Amino acid sequence: MAVASLPHGAPDAHHGGVDQLYAETRELRLQGFLLFLVSDVVLFSSFIFAYLYMRSSGQGWPPPGIGRLDVAFAALNSVVLFGSGATMHYALENWKHGHFNRYALLMVATIILGAAFLGGQGYEYTNLIYNEHVTWAGSGVFGASFFTLTGMHGFHVFVGVWYLTILLLQSVQGIYTKDKYFGLTAGTLYWHFVDVIWVVLFSIFYLI
Amino acid sequence: MATTTEHEHEHSGGIADHIHPEPQGFIRRYVFSIDHKIIGIQYIITGFVFLMLSGLLAEVIRTQLLHPTGGFVSNDTYNEVYSVHGSAMVWLVIIPLVTGGFGNFVMPLQIGARDVAFPWLNMLSFWMFPLAGLMLFSSFLMGAPVAGWTEYPPMSLQAGPGTSMWCAAIFLIGVSSTLTGINFLVTILRMRAPGMTFTRMPLFVWAQLATAPLSMVATTALAAALAALFMERQFGVPFYDPTKGGSPLLWQHMFWFYSHPAVYIMVLPAFGVISEVLPTFSRKPIFGYKLIAFSSVAIALAGFMVWAHHMFTSGLAPYLQLPFMILTFTIAIPTGVKIFSWVATLWGGKIHFTSAMLFAVGFLALFTLGGITGIFLAAVPFDLHVHGTYFVVAHFHYVLVGGSLMGLFAGTYYWFPKMSGRMMNETLGKLHFWLFFIGFNGTFLPQHWLGILGMPRRVPVYDPQFTSWNQFSSYSSYLMTFGILLFFINLLMSIRTGKKAGANPWGARTLEWQIPSPPHYYNFKHIPTVYGLPYDFSYPLPYSGLDQELTDAPGPASTLAGAH
Predict the structure, then answer these.
(1) How would you write B158-171 as a 3-class SS string?
(2) ipTM of model
(3) Spatial CB neighbours of B84, under 8 Å, sequence gap ≥ 6
(4) CA distances from B420 to B41, B60, B408, B494 (A)
(5) Residues A21, B18: C-beta atoms closer than 8 Å
(6) What is the rounded CA–CA span in Å between residue B125 and residue B129?
(7) Is pLDDT above 90 for B556?
């Protein structure tokens, strides 16, 4: 908290100033970013509440006329997404240890896995809409809650894939250093957040 | 940050001493400014413009109700008018003014910071506000919302396209509110001056600290409810329509999960203003500093657990009514702690009845009355009787106008000298107070018994037996509006011709009064160190490092000039 402890022109300000400034800025941005994720959690929670509320007040779930969702495929797709969480984690670890090539490889893997998850979701949507005739607006609260929540999550993954791509390009350009890589930390946090949300969504839509 | 070189930071010792050079040019300084003080004033000006507009809508309502058969505007227009009046007063006037306006201007100064944590984000939050306002008022052009500020389905699903515009506008102002909440929370948690521990923070900062998580969390829940309403209206996605399996009650749950905490978003910062004004003009330490501080947090937390008391007549299960009733009663405890602490602050003080102080004392009276009727309404049997009547209208106007708006007026009279460097006219200020206070009570006091007698809210006509009290209420409301008119005249006049204020015209002790009025771009020449509470009037000021603030000594801007 004692952010003003260094007096002007103190001997160590020449070097210390830059790092201290960076450290403090990093702390602020980290906290701000975490709070942003908290508010995003609330956004998902509100829709999850809406889903559970509608589900509990209806006549059985899934409602009559709608089949159960394909758990096996979704489980496979989930493994893809969780795998990308693991590659993301090791990408950041390798960055911290200065292994740039391994970092870049793992980032590329994360991006490909994220895109593959989106592809899987696209396949699932297509199947639901064209074969099962379950749609967003035309299948009652089932379609509304399923497509809204998984769509919101898919949008977050979509944004995340672009976000990680931009981070990768930035790190290739040399914007981040071994000590100063807040963008990468934020990207990792965001990606793990997307993973955790999916754990909840998978449980409430496919398992229960 | 990453591209700066060592040379550029030769003089800096961290964020507190790190400042950007003052922006040049009118646009960068006063329009797209990232300075929290300018942004605060921008919020205040914009908020007052919307106050005038939605005040005019209020007068349309009162003029319509002069006669039992109405006739001033059509019944459909009347529905639009009260819906936009309520929405605008909540989202475009009170919330932006108490957080974005006064929070922005005062809070960073009071904690001894140079700005908020994310100045650029702050600017972004501000510019969403006038845009959202324009969107909300533009809904009049396409058939404004007609289901009141609460927009319950199914009515809000059946209304014209203006309701979708309403959704978008409120969503936008909600995003702005959320971002401001995040910004303020990080600022208060991380950017306080050395020595300013949590229990040395001014109470206005405590109030903002309690409010910020509410704006952040509750508003996001509202965003979900609004998005669902928007999707249902525009794309037919069923959430609330019972014929498609949706539930109108779902909206009520989601809406009130936000809107009850929103009540505290609106009133907690006003509590903070009162906690600054009362000790300053009583020349006496605030009574029960920690109790006032912690009760703000208690109110904020409890505010999340009481939303269903708005739904006692909506078919809420009886076994849920009792816990919500009791939880609502418990909110009266921390609120009562505050009221008694304020009264004890006045007790034995050397009271100066400036305009700011008059509004603060008026706040105490009116807010207490509004709080007491709140307890009435929390009691299920009484609520079943008066739900949807003018009793409710009277209750929430006592807390929102008598509470929040009076607090805003007190804050304006109190901090105007700091913002502008000039004093407001005290004679006009006192006239404003008395016209407003008498007019307000004349307007809303009779509505209590109109409600108990059964006059329903949101209806353009009424039973002729209520005529005389309605006319009394309407004529009083003109008096109140005239008072507000004097306030605006006072503002416009004082900003040009008010007498010079000097740094500390009130003899107040919080940090913002120890620097020039208006403050420099960089706020403090040196970040001060804090040794104690700002309310101990008998001791020397609990700060060091401020001795050059009021001298000609160069500020940090000159030492850093050209650095970036």
Answers:
(1) HCCCHHHHHHHHHH
(2) 0.90
(3) B54, B57, B136, B137, B139, B140, B144, B145
(4) 10, 34, 17, 9
(5) yes
(6) 7
(7) no
Entry pTM: 0.92
In whole angstroms, give the CA distance from residue B530 to residue B200: 8
B174 closest CA partner among B226, B139, B123: B226
pLDDT band at B18 (very low <50, low <70, confident <90, very high): low
Mention every residue, 6+ apart, whose C-beta is less than 8 A from residue A14: B6, B10
Mutation target vs B (from A5, A14, A18, A35; most B CBs, 10 A cutoff):
A35
Residue tagged 């004033």 (tokens) = B41
Q: In this structure, what DSSP letter does residue B239 have?
A: S
Distance between CA atoms of B330 and B260, rounded to whole angstroms? 15
DSSP state of B242: G
- The CATH architecture to which B28-559 belongs is Up-down Bundle (1.20)
Summarised one tens digit per residue, pLDDT across range B225-258 is 999 999 999 999 999 998 888 899 999 999 999 9
Q: Residue B105 carries which side chain, given as an amino acid letter?
A: F
Task: Say which residues have a Cβ less than 8 Å from residue B187's Cβ, sequence separation at least 6.
Answer: B107, B108, B111, B113, B116, B117
Report the distance separating Cα B300 and Cα B303, nearest Å. Answer: 5
Residue B22: phi and psi, rounded to 5, are -60, 135
pLDDT attached to residue B563? 36
Average pLDDT over chain A, rounded to an integer: 89
**Structural domains in chain A, sorted by start:** 13-207 (1.20.120.80)
Inter-chain Cβ pairs, chain A and chain B, closer than 8 A: 164
Q: Is B67 exposed, middle or buried (0-12, 13-18, 19+ CB in 10 A)?
A: middle
Tokens of A205: 């839509």
Residue A147, CB half-sphere, CA atoms under 13 Å: how many? 23
CB B195 within 8 A of CB B116: no
Predicted confidence (pLDDT) per residue in A125-152, tens digit: 999 999 989 999 988 899 999 999 999 9
Residues B166, B112: Cα–Cα separation, whole Å: 39
- Calpha distance B496→B422 (Å, rounded): 8
Q: Which residues 15-54 of chain A have a CB within 8 Å of chain B? A: 15-18, 20-22, 24-25, 27-28, 31-32, 35-36, 38-40, 42-43, 45-47, 49-50, 53-54
**pLDDT for A10 beyond 60:** no
**pLDDT exceeds 80 at position A7:** no
Minimal C-alpha gap between A64 and chain B (Å): 12
Find the radius of gyration of the CA atoms of chain A. 21
Query: Which class for B448: exposed (0-12), middle (13-18), buried (19 or more C-beta within 10 A)?
Result: buried
- Residue A193 CA to residue A164 CA, distance in Å, equals 14
Question: Cα distance from B214 to chain A (closest Cα, Å)?
Answer: 10
Per the DSSP assignment, residues forming a β-bridge with B456 are B389
By three-state DSSP, how is residue B545 classified? coil
Distance from CA of A4 to the nearest CA of B (A): 5
3-state secondary structure of A2: coil
Residues of chain A neighbouring B178 (CB-CB closer than 8 A)? 39
Q: How far is CA A179 from CA A24, A26, B2, B25, B223, in A?
A: 13, 11, 11, 37, 38
Cα–Cα nearest to B461, from B85, B177, B110, B61: B61
Which residue from A7, A28, A177 is facing B186, i.e. has the nearest CB? A28
- C-alpha A78/C-alpha B564 separation (Å) is 48
**Which tokens sit at A76?**
């496979």
